[in-house]
Amino acid sequence: MNTLRGLGACAVLAGAAYAVTKVATLDQVVLAITITIVAVSLVTYGASVRRRRMDRRAANGRIRSRRVTSG
Q: Which of 33, 34, 46, 59 is such that its CA lies 20 to 30 A from the CA of 40?
């Protein structure tokens, strides 16, 4: 980890600690963060499954073209 990345991580942690002290309803903040993490994880998993299927089709020689051809 380079120096700037380390400083950035420290700044994010310090900002999060400051924000937690200023928020009155910490439970709602934690809930929102949890929901966001779960949603991003599901989207990433879905994209991974889609990519894996496309790779298997390409390896088998059955890649599907995305453009419509006439005829």
A: 59
Number of Cβ within 10 Å of residue 33's Cβ equals 11
CA distance 22 to 10: 19
Q: What is the dihedral of CA 23, 26, 30, 33, to 10 degrees?
A: -20
Side chain identity, residue 8: G
Rg (CA), the chain: 22
The CA distance from 33 to 14, in Å, is: 17
Local confidence pLDDT in tens for the 71 residues of the chain: 566 677 888 888 888 888 778 777 878 878 888 898 899 999 999 999 999 998 888 888 766 556 655 55
